[in-house]
Amino acid sequence: MKELELKYGCNPNQKPSRIYVEGRDLPIEVLSGKPGYINFLDAFNGWQLVRELKAATGLAAAASFKHVSPAGAAVGLALTDTERKIYWVDDMDIEFTPLANAYARARGADRMSSFGDFISLSDVCDKATALIIKREVSDGVIAPGYEPEALEILKAKKGGNYNVIQIDPDYEPDPVEKKQVFGITFEQGRNELKIDDAFFNNIVTDNKELTAQAKIDLAISMITLKYTQSNSVCYVKDGQAIGIGAGQQSRIHCTRLAGQKADNWFLRQSPQVMGLPFVDGIRRADRDNAIDLYIGEDYMDVLSDGAWEHIFKEKPSVFTREEKRAWLDRMSGVTLGSDAFFPFGDNIERAHKSGVQFVAQPGGSIRDDHVIDTCNKYGMVMCFTGIRLFHH
């Protein structure tokens, strides 16, 4: 197939629209549905991300994309009982394969942002992964292949209109890429930077004890940032992104936004949230929304009289600011990656509140010494990569 005509571009008024590769066949086959312009942007960015995660870690990988940035990314480490509960998969009677674990993590870390996602999978989609995808609100999936039973499950989703794309895993794009803005063509070399263990060798803090898990998590953070709209930072713990701050003009706003998402991920594991008495039959999306409100500043939206009765069997007590802070103080072992240098130590101060112990950033600020001193104050390990990872 030389090209694929699309219904429209980013918006319905943007016609005509198509995708193609100059001088080559398209490396994809649409097995179900009619993917749109933004679907393909999510699919191709997500495929690059999971392919690189698999290459860097040797583990199955998955990403959940929304509006051309990842809402979640993870590798296929086993789920704990708590994680199965907060990702709403504890009721599933399936054998959780590495790929299924990876997608449950990628989708579950920030379920509010992942609602209606486009999924990218590093490996052939198996039945277990397809069964998790089946029950989620999603636009589509891209993978290098599908087991026959998995494909049938996915093709039945959305009344047969679910977008299923198969990509040639051996496809390699040309080394120079182009795009147009206002009729003007931009050209640059593709970002072929390889992120591996050696990427984190330049440790600039007093503490230089970089654990094996921290190296995996730092690789996940930096590869995720490579395909996240900049400015961006990414918090990672135990093989999954738990907070991604994308497309912010200020670095500290990136750090705060992603840090709040990481905090929410951890607060969902607290006894107050795990024990919420939801009414029978409530949808997963409604539970997610209720939890997001309950742990935030607008908690009265779900606790006021006339509101809580539709969500809970009995009225929960307020999750106070002091109780939340006490629970968050137990959070540790988190890594933080940044796509460009931290200009001030305030980013590290904010990261510390979310349990960050390992940091990777390019370095190069005139205040590097202040940032290093702030890391040393908290006993953090920080690497200077020397490489910026902007993505636009």
Verbal overview:
- It is a single chain.
- A six-stranded mixed sheet has the order 3-8-7-6-4-5. The chain has a five-stranded mixed sheet with strand order 12-11-13-14-15, sandwiched between helices.
- It has three domains: 3-167, Cytidine Deaminase, domain 2; 191-267 and 328-384, Cytidine Deaminase, domain 2 (3-Layer(aba) Sandwich), CATH 3.40.140.20; 271-318, Helix Hairpins, CATH 1.10.287.
- The protein is of the alpha/beta class and 392 residues long.
- It is 34% helix and 21% strand.
- It has helices at residues 37-57, 81-86, 98-108, 111-114, 127-134, 148-155, 212-226, 251-267, 271-274, 284-294, 300-303, 321-328, 346-352, 368-377; strands spanning 3-6, 17-20, 28-32, 61-66, 69-75, 117-121, 138-143, 163-167, 176-181, 184-189, 232-237, 240-246, 334-338, 356-361, 381-384.
- The chain has 14 helices and 15 strands.
Question: Could you say which overall geometry the principal axes of the C-alpha atoms support?
Answer: globular
Q: What fraction of residues sit in β-strands?
A: 15-25%
- First-residue to last-residue Cα separation: 28 Å
Which radius of gyration do the C-alpha atoms yield? 21 Å
| Number of β-strand runs | 15
Reported for the largest beta sheet, the result is: 6 strands, mixed
CATH topology of the largest domain: Cytidine Deaminase, domain 2
Mean pLDDT value: 96
Structural class: alpha/beta
Task: Count every helix, treating DSSP H or I runs of 4 or more residues as helices.
Answer: 14
Q: Strands across the major sheet, in which order?
A: 3-8-7-6-4-5
CATH class of the largest domain: Alpha Beta
Say which CATH homologous superfamily of the largest domain is assigned. AICAR transformylase, duplication domain
Low-confidence blocks of residues? none
